[in-house]
Description:
Blueprint: H1 7-21, H2 24-29, E1 34-39, E2 42-47, H3 52-59, H4 61-75, E3 80-85, H5 93-100, H6 107-115, H7 118-126, E4 129-133, E5 149-152
Parallel strand pairs: 2-3
Antiparallel strand pairs: 1-2, 4-5
Amino acid sequence: xxxxxxxxxxxxxxxxxxxxxxxxxxxxxxxxxxxxxxxxxxxxxxxxxxxxxxxxxxxxxxxxxxxxxxxxxxxxxxxxxxxxxxxxxxxxxxxxxxxxxxxxxxxxxxxxxxxxxxxxxxxxxxxxxxxxxxxxxxxxxxxxxxxxxxxxxx
Length: 154
């Protein structure tokens, strides 16, 4: 009888699988947030919504097969892999309260704050520009950063 898989052995086999594959499949699969046993000989690999592209890459039949074959060989049994998307994390009420209780900052204060950033100062100096508008950062789900829009002077 085969020994049961536990969360520790599953994590270990997953890491070994990724190390052995060592290509883009392992790069994308490595972005998984959680690996869990969902049933005997069945694994669920979960991704955050921010990594939907990585999940979709891993779901391709040839990629899934590569992951399943390598994991199965290491585990000593046939394992099927399912992929899942984790729900968005809810912002705790206390964090939401803190965001809404910030004192308002004037446009001028915000521009001065942005101008203290070393990259903004350097860009303004290099391109002989000034800040004409300061845009609020995108929602936390996006990873883009645009603290200021700079326009060149004529």
